[in-house]
Amino acid sequence: MCMFLANLFKHLRAESVEHEAKLELAGLHGKMESNPHLSKKGWRFVQTFDYRTFRLCKVVQGNSVKFHKVVEDVMGMPGYEEDILASMCMAHGGGGPERRLTLQDVWEVHMPTQWYIDQLTRLFDTGKNTPIHLLKAKNDEYHQRFMTLREKGVLEGEGLTYNLDIAQSFVILTALPQKWNKETKHTCICRSFFKHGACEHCASMAMLMECKVKIPKNAVLKKLQHRPRREKEPTTSVTKDEGSAFSKDKRTYQLPTV
Ligand SMILES: [Zn+2]
């Protein structure tokens, strides 16, 4: 195991050196912040995540049982069944269930995108009230397609739109051999991470892993800040501008059925 990790780290380091060399060649050396942090806007996006996001995550490499136990422990707290994800992590930051997840537990995690969760719930007549086990079963089917697409590069016999939809249903979080900062322990395939070296997916995962990772006070959405504990409240709303990253895609078609 140690040999495997040592080799893996060696390989990753070699890759990063190679990447650095490439950046230098491209005249980009030093352009990216050495210790990128998630922006205030990014932290606000975290607070708009669907509360089922973690439940629909797929641990591809790591300890799926441990991960989902932590998720259920946090979600099982009274009064949080219909709450949003970020407030649960915040409310239970100090006390609450033990949620120490190591990088090995969440080495590679596929996190559903918010667009996809929205499409997934629309497949059922019951919409947002659809029981989680039904959503999970459907989610497994789509994730299988996502894996096939990743492996083969294309889903044969399906149109381009279908292929693109499946491609954007999950982001891939891969553990960094050394965390960049407390909110960035993974790399992500999303545009935000590619551009800024930080994203809402990595930050929310870091929050789940460690209760010390908190939303900066100046980024806390008002509703969340004044939210009474242990009382049900509708999902925190954001202004049109704040939610634009998830609503840019104005397409009206629905997720194709598997
Ligand atoms: Zn991301």
What does this structure look like?
It is a single chain. With 258 residues, the protein is of the alpha+beta class. It folds into two domains: 30 residues; 210 residues, no CATH class. It has eleven helices and four strands, in the order ααβααβαααββαααα. The protein has a four-stranded antiparallel beta sheet with strand order 1-2-3-4. Helix 2 packs across helix 9. The termini are far apart. The structure holds zinc ion (ZN). The site of zinc ion (ZN) has 8 residues, from helix 8 and helix 9.
List the helices and strands and how they pair.
Layout: H1 2-25, H2 40-46, E1 58-61, H3 64-75, H4 85-91, E2 108-112, H5 114-122, H6 132-152, H7 160-167, E3 170-175, E4 186-187, H8 191-196, H9 200-209, H10 222-225, H11 244-247
Antiparallel strand pairs: 1-2, 2-3, 3-4
Zinc ion (ZN) binds at residues 171, 188, 190, 192-193, 199, 201-202.
